[in-house]
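Check out a protein:
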Amino acid sequence: MLISDRLFYLLAVLFAAALIAVSVRYWPGQDYVTGPFSGAPEDGLVVSGQQLGVMQAAQGLTAQIMEEDGVAFLRTAAGQSPTDGGRSAGVFLTLPETFSAAYAKTTIEITMILRGAGPDPSPKVSLAYYAPGRGNSRRTKCVLTGQWQPCTMRYQPPPAGEKNSVDYLGLWPDLDGLSRTADILEVRVMPAGKSALRALE
């Protein structure tokens, strides 16, 4: 049975796309990274390893995935202080609307596993929750050392609005804006009834 050229090319394109998808997902030696938001919000959120690449840096800040002894982390720096220029969330994680809505009016515990690192390590950072147009948390300041340690805060986000329903978790890596570096190993958000910490290896 003969098929038209148009149908042949359509089938060829679909086959090639499927082959590429399978190769990326299952090819030996490839590390497949699932999205951090694939689970249910009420079960909590954990972002670590290569997933930290979903975090973004506002203007004047930097964020770069690095590895050390096979462990991936996000190295961040701030070339300005939190009070310089316009308001910013620093290096931030954008929460999808489903997560923002699930956490609204619920006390959540936010933890980042951090360290001061690099040639010029940051001595102190701040952590905050941002709900634009509805209310932001106060900044929680944490002193860093060269060892991984938790920086934790609790907050009850305001109800989601009709127009502003996307929230952010933000880290300011250097409160003096001197481009000193702070590393993020993990970001974890849990309802207050659950533990927000895991054993550090």
User: Anything to note?
Assistant: The chain is about 15% helix and 35% strand. The mean pLDDT is 82. Helices lie at 5-26, 97-103. Residues 1-32 form one domain.
